Amino acid sequence: MLPTGIHFESYAAETRVLKTRRSQVWLAIxxxxxxxxxxxxxAYLTGIASEMFITLMAVYGLYITVGMxxxxxxxxxxxxxxxxxxxxxLSGYGVPVxxxxxxxxxxxxxxxxxFALPASRVKGLYLALTTLAAQxxxxxxIYALPPGWLGGLAGMPVEPLTVFGLDLGSPARLYYFTxxxxxxxxxxxxxxxxxxFGRAMIAVRDNDVAAEVMGIPVFxxxxxxFFVGSLFAGIAGACMAYVLQFVTASSFTLFAxxxxxxxxxxxxxxxxxxAILGVLFITIVQESLHKVANTLMxxxxxxxGTLFALTSxxxxxxxxxxxxxxxxxxxxRWAVLRKAFQIWPFPRS
Length: 349
Description:
By secondary structure, the protein is mainly α. It is about 75% helix and about 0% strand.
């Protein structure tokens, strides 16, 4: 429901993300706030924001594969790792960053297709097990290859991030670097959901048999959903490699894949906004718990170490609470509040 006087004369106008002037103004305010944030936040908060942007890139890819196409993927962390190792290897050859990131994304997409081909033939639990195999095989392959290829157990260093000779290694510059990339990916993912390919994925998710009867190539759409979702993961991995300056297989675990999926579920599976809200919610809760634990330890009070150890359990409980009280995710709750605000003071029904 929209305010009185808001109407559309074309499908393109109706599918716009920003449908009103007021929403455009709020977006401009948000962009301005993000641009000036490093001038007021310290290096710690700036670094946390950069990590959050990278996580959002990976969750965007999961939204395409899981939220739009309905293909369960619990190997997103492994695909992020593929992008990170590809970026580390390419940067070692002196390839500039504006080529490293797309090449790392393409390598990740190609690797994902190897697992998407069998995964697209199965559903449900068997699909989850297929992607779990990809996650399990990732460290095995890294460790089994000669150390000169991908570093083996020791890992690989990454060349410093430079663009046209300008060093981007400071927290503020890394913040703007990741912000620029996540902004491009945000626009892309919002456009994908209204594209022909996006509508095909949604049709396959809702009913693949009916979609095939309508002429949609179901197998091709499923494989392409893995490929496109892994492109986002590869970009996230490349950015993570540049931020960390070192990559090891132990950094990309099944635990991380589960958290990516948990963030998407909390935020809302069927909306790009769900990915944003889920990442923001989990990051804020996690960092708040760490801040409280650090404060307790600095004051010499007991419980700081215990709180650190219980962080994952508390976050898991937050996910369960969110699922119980808002199973459609935070994005649905945001939509309800936004519509109520738009038509206030009139009733919603």
